[in-house]
Design brief:
five-stranded parallel beta sheet
Length: about 375
Amino acid sequence: MSQNQTFVYLAVCYGVIGYETILGIVRVQDYFLAKFKKEFKIDAKKNKESLESNSKSITAASMEGKLKEKLESTGIAFLCLAVSKNSSSPISSLSGLVGMVCLILTLRMAHKSLACKLKARTELKNKSWKMSKKNSTSAENLLEMINDSNQTVHPDFENAEMKMVDITNNNITEQSTMYHYQKRKHLYLEDQDINLKAELEKCQKKTTEEKVVKQQSNAKKVDNRVDKVYTIGCFDLFHFGHVQLINRMRELGKKVIVGVHDSRSIYKLKKRVPVDSTEKRMMNVKTVADEVFCIAGCDPSNFMSCIVNLGKNETALYVRGDDMPDFPSREVVESLMPIKLLPYTEGVSTTKLRKENYSHIAPDDEEYLDKIN
C-alpha cells in the first residue's frame, strides 16, 4: 500500500475514532444532566414543552444517528473484506473503495451531529443568561416603583421596611439591604366598608325576591273548595263505597258534615232493620268526616234547616250518590245550597254484604231493632 493510501486510510480511521469519542462524551454528559433534572424535577414543564415543540427535529436526529451507524458498520465490513482479499493494498480494490466512502460519509455525519449538539448547548446557555437578566431587570423596576411610591405622602399610609432577595438560576441569594416603602395604617378602610355594604344589600335584595316568588307561588295554589259540604245517609255495614263518597266530599269542601239516620227511620224507609246500631254507624262515619249528626226521622228537611248554619260569604254544597237522585227533602236542600250527584261505587253495597254475612237477621225483626237502636 502506497504512502498516500496509508495516510488517507489512517486519517479516516482516526477521524472517525475521534469524532465518535467526543460524541460519546457529550452524550454521557447529556444523559446524566437529563437524569438529574428528572430526579429533582427541575424545569419539568419547560422540558415537556421543548420536547413537544422539537419532536420533528428529534425524530430527524434519531434517523440520522441510525444512518451513521449503518454507514460505519458497512464501511468496516467492506474494508475487512478488502483486507482479506488483498492485505498489502486493500484500498485499491472495489470493496476497499466502498468501505472508505462509507467511512468518509460517517465522518461527515459525525461532524454534523457534534456541531448540532454544541449549538444546542450554546443556545441553552444564552437563554439562561437572558432569563437571569430579565429577573434582574424586574427587580430593578420593583425598586424604582418602591422609590416612586415613597415620594408621595398620604395620611392613611406610614413608612415601613422590607428585606429583598435576589433569585438567580433557581438559587435564592439573600441581601442585607433594607428597602423602605409605605403601607396602610388601617386594614379596614371606607372603601372596604362600602363593598361590604353593597354585598349586604345584594343579599337582602335576593332574599326579598325569593320571598316574592314564594308568595306568588302560594297565591297560585288557591283553594277553590266550598266552605262546607253536606250529605245524609244510613251508612249501615260501613264499607269502601261509604269511605270513597266521603273522601270525594273532602275534595269538594273544606269541612265535611254528615247526617246519619237512626235505626227506626231506616226501618220505616227501607222496610228492613239495620245490622249496626245508630251509635256504631255514627262512630264509623266520624272516622272520616268532620261533624256527624243524627236524623231521627224519615224526612230530614227540618234537621237540615236546623243544621245548616252558614256565615257571611260562606259557601256550601250537598253531595249525594247518583243511585238515588230523588232523595227525601231534595226541595229543602236545593233552597239552601247546590246539589252534586256523585257516581255510585260498583262492586260493593250494604245489601250485598247483608246477604253474604247477615242473612240470619230478618228484615222485619223488631226485637233486634229494639236491641240495637
